Amino acid sequence: MNDNIEENHSEQIVDSFLRNLPPVDANGLSVYDKWWIKHFEYFKDHGYMMRPRYRPGWKPSYNPEKVFEKLDAEDGQEMIHGDVMDALRMSDSLVVALKLVKVSTGETRMATFFSNDTNNHNPRNHCVRILEVLPLPDEDDKKILVMTWMRPIMDPRFRTIGEGVQFFKEMIEGLQYMHENNVAHRDCSINNVAMDANAMYNRTFHPINTKKRYDWSGKVLHHSRTRRPPRYYLIDFGQSRLYDPSRSRPHEYALRSGGYMPPEGLEGTPCDPFATDVFLLGNLIRTSFLDGDPELFEPGVSGFEFLRPLVMDMIAEDPSKRPTMDEVSSRFSQIVDRLSWWKLRSRAIKNSEYILSKPFRATYHIFWTISMLVLLKPAIPCPKPLH
Predict the structure, then answer these.
(1) At what angle do helices 325-337 and 161-180 cross, to 10 degrees?
(2) CATH number (domain holding residue 55)
(3) Residue 357 is part of a domain; what is its CATH number?
(4) Beta bridge pairs of residue 241
(5) What residue spans of the chain are helical by DSSP H?
(6) Apex CA 70: angle with CA 16 and CA 200, to 5°?
(7) Domain residue limits at 360
């Protein structure tokens, strides 16, 4: 009976998803696609070239009724979010994200605040940098934020414990920096952290099918995070708030983030937004690394149990008992300082890894680790300073 209930629930989710998909024309273009196509010349004039699918007069190179043909074609790769488009910056071939935002949300103000001259080159600032803000000639209430195109943090996989430590360090440091500047993110879940992985790739990867080259000429290969360290960023500041440091910080109602509602949100009790941020970051580490997330089919990664005491304090039900980001940062540094070099260089193993492959992966890892030692690569990757 339970199986039937779960099956019916799954069918309801799929039906709901399909009903909410925007209608498409004969070429498979939705109203969102057509909005971007309408603005193609505007973005081109500002130095940004969208892919062939989003150019005026485009016709599919495949049969739109055949799903597998579409998946195999470059111009069949649709944007993931209707308000975010990828494009090539023509001056240097950098793949960027063009994000459509409403002025009323305040996201433009928050995002550009951490990209100004004061904050832009601070190494502790891990908020995504805004390269340019474009006004829209026909929509005064909206703007376009231009930023480097990012990848999900779990793709490609973490190879070592030290690589994971780099990610935790940058996220803790980044959220601490936001709080020092009297800003609460309020939505810092796994959905709103991303990785600038361009350093890891010799060839530009495709923004939608990230295992392929941008020009669709084959698979794209990458170096490890240890050899070519990426950078991690907090993104999406649509719910962020900047507070007046001369006044007592107001309590806010918590928001559902990444599929999780903080305890204070479940109770409907306003709370210090900084304490809610601490919960959300701790929950990110718990669900993406320590325990996994069954809702997202994320199995978790073994080897990070040394963080559990800190994480459990970060996700305490009583917000007043959670550490501040300054305390999180201090405790994290102390924990990492106690880790041996061999622990940091040991494998970060996905909990879903096939058991029979483990001996072979472990053997390969030993030889790979030797190569990293020969190349003098640190156990905790250290990205090059921003220029």
Answers:
(1) 160
(2) 3.30.200.20
(3) 1.10.510.10
(4) 184
(5) 2-20, 31-38, 40-45, 67-72, 107-113, 161-180, 263-267, 273-285, 308-314, 325-337, 341-345, 358-374
(6) 95
(7) 161-374
pTM of the model: 0.91
| Residue 77 near residue 62 (C-beta atoms within 8 A) | no
Most distant pair of Cα atoms in the chain: their distance: 62
pLDDT value at residue 296: 75
Indicate whether 275 and 365 sit together in one domain: yes
Q: Please check whether residue 92 is in contact with residue 76, taking contact to mean a CB–CB distance below 8 angstroms.
A: no
Name residues of the chain where pLDDT drops below 70: 1-22, 387
**pLDDT, position 386:** 78
Question: Does one domain contain both 85 and 119?
Answer: yes
pLDDT by residue (tens digit) across 304-328? 999 999 999 999 999 999 999 999 9
Domain-located, residue 250: yes
Asked if the structure places residue 244 within a domain, the reply is: yes
**Residues 241 and 361 placed together within one structural domain of the fold:** yes
Positive or negative torsion for Cα 310, 314, 319, 325: positive
Burial of 177 (0-12, 13-18, 19+ CB in 10 A): buried
Task: Look at residue 17 in the predicted model and tell me its pLDDT.
Answer: 45
Question: Could you tell me if 138 and 177 lie in one domain?
Answer: no
Residues 143 and 167 in one domain: no
**Running DSSP on this structure, what letter comes out for residue 282?**
H
pLDDT in tens, 242-283: 999 999 999 999 999 999 999 999 999 999 999 999 999 999
